[in-house]
Amino acid sequence: MKLAKTHSISLFGLSGRVIEVEADISSNLPGFVLVGLPDASLNESTARVRSATVNSGLALPQRKITVNLSPASVPKHGSSFDLAIALAALGAAGLVTGEGVSETVFIGELALDGRIKPVRGVLPMVMAARACGFAKAVVPLENLAEAKLIEGIETFGFDHLTQVASFYGAKCSPVPPIKRVGVESFRDSATNCFSEVLGQSSAIDALTVAAAGGHHLLMVGPPGAGKTMLAERLPGILPRLNHEQIVENLAIQSLARSEAGFPSNLVPFMAPHQTASLASMVGGGSGSPSPGIISLANNGILFLDEAPEFQTSVLDSLRQPLESGTITISRASGQAVFPAKFQLVLAANPCPCGFSVGSGRSCSCTGGQRAKYFSRISGPLSDRIDLRLQLNQVNAKQISSGEPGPLSKDLAIKVANARKLAEKRLRGTPWVKNSQVPGSYLRKQLRLPFQVTRPLDTALDRSVITMRGYDRTLRLTWTVADLNGNAQPTSEDLALAMYYRGNA
Predict the structure, then answer these.
(1) Is there a contact between 76 and 12 (Cβ–Cβ < 8 Å)?
(2) What angle do CA 459, 379, 438 make, to 5 degrees?
(3) pLDDT of 68-104, one tens digit each?
(4) Phi, psi of 300 (to 5 degrees)
(5) pLDDT averaged over every residue in the chain
(6) Can you give the pLDDT at residue 370?
(7) Cα of 167 vs its chain's centroid, Å
(8) Which residues lie closer than 8 Å to 468 by C-beta, 6 or more apart?
(9) What pLDDT is recorded for position 296?
(10) Count helices and strands in the chain by DSSP H and E runs
């Protein structure tokens, strides 16, 4: 008997740390001991590994087996260490003789019959392994497609312990693979089109501005005005995700879901129900925190329909990620930071009953009820909204005319051209969209003539807008100019931006 070691990854949020798995077999009384600060689910790994090896024809000797997870000071969670523990024990028993076991990262949960089950977080684990200099990683076969997205590290997928053991020199009959992984493809289709929207041409223009600059949006209108319909069509005119964004989103999905993610270059669209809790939106959980809906909307759209019906704490939790693009979850064992670069779209009725404007029906709400209804969207959150639209009910004449809205593919071309102008202007900076440009850069390097900004300066002097509102209006102005093909914003571009902002 000898000492053998393998490696695995311990995740905390999206950050991974390499864990050395050492196995020693001594001549003491039979037993299987796991040390190194494992949690309850990881402590149960000893029973899973023992049964999996026996049922795979790779029975471990009836001796004292001690497995150490190092460094011991790092908390370890979950069942993804099973495969690494099994390979270390088989190596210590002399059943695995192949070279390279100690230089490979092993990730996977073992069933009692030796099957290797998929686990959450494979993508960030493989990313962490590559960052630490490992050249090879073994993952469950069902997770292989997402692991292959990481370049610079060779990944292998197996669905049974005998396959891994045979790969590393064990004398056994490997069980044939149950599932084969095909060539992954991308979903690249948008079914909803703006041509289906009737009577809301001005709203479609505003959504095009929001898409071109990545600006946050609030739509207020009576029930049935088309707020949800408009929001659902916004992803169809946004540019497709690049490879870096796809991998980042898939890493978040890998942590949040048990099944393997499916790569897609379409922007995410998350629309939680009004009863969503703070934990479901932000993320959390015991042990290693999981990402919430805010992070799942990363690089995409977060749509809150009937926004005033959400809990105030949920709405206020959006303020930090709207500014920083990240969400930080603090626990006693550390802080988990998840990306949260989303575009916020809010929809609301003008009052609790929804009929205070433009519906032809009498409103039954009192002034106090209306004030309480909109007070849930706090001032600081409202100040971070760039565009504020007032939608009216579509009338019979607009419906009978049958004039369709513009095609989403045509709007997507306009948005793409506007973004190219912004990228060209911001070349050499860390920003690619107008909504990302800080106010200091706008007021210095991109300073506009006083004749153009005079109405905005006057609004600031009269405390009609805040300094944050001033900067956000400037960002909106540049987006309007990009859509109009102007090299520099004009007074008309600023006037339209102030109108969208609600300062006109």
Answers:
(1) no
(2) 60
(3) 999 998 888 889 999 999 999 999 999 998 678 999 9
(4) -145, -150
(5) 89
(6) 83
(7) 35
(8) 383, 384, 439
(9) 94
(10) 21, 18
Query: Do the beta carbons of residue 303 and residue 347 sit within 8 Å?
Result: yes
Cβ neighbors of 296 (< 8 A, separation 6 or more) are: 252, 253, 256, 268, 270
Residue 13 carries which side chain, given as an amino acid letter?
G
Place of tokens 């929207």: 197
The pLDDT of residue 187 = 47
Residue where the block lists tokens 């795979």: 56
Percent pLDDT > 70 in the chain is: 93
For 85, the 3-state DSSP assignment is helix
Burial class (CB in 10 A: 0-12, 13-18, 19+), 201: middle
434 three-class SS: helix
Inter-residue contact 93 to 61 (CB < 8 Å):
yes
Residue bearing tokens 């490696």: 7
Is a pLDDT exceeding 70 seen at residue 141? Answer: yes
* pTM given for the model: 0.87
Check: CB of residue 293 under 8 Å from CB of residue 268: no
> Which value, in Å, is the radius of gyration of the alpha carbons in the chain?
28
pLDDT of residue 181: 47
On the question of a cis peptide bond just before residue 75, with omega within 30 degrees of 0, the verdict is no
Residue type present at position 102:
S
Can you tell me the distance from the alpha carbon of 137 to that of 131, in angstroms, rounded to the nearest whole number?
A: 12
Q: Whose structure tokens read 């493809």?
A: 185
Phi, psi of 18 (to 5 degrees): -70, 130
Category of 280 on φ-ψ map: left (φ > 0), alpha (ψ -120 to 50) or beta? alpha
Mean pLDDT of 184-206: 75
Q: What does the pLDDT average to over 175-188? A: 58
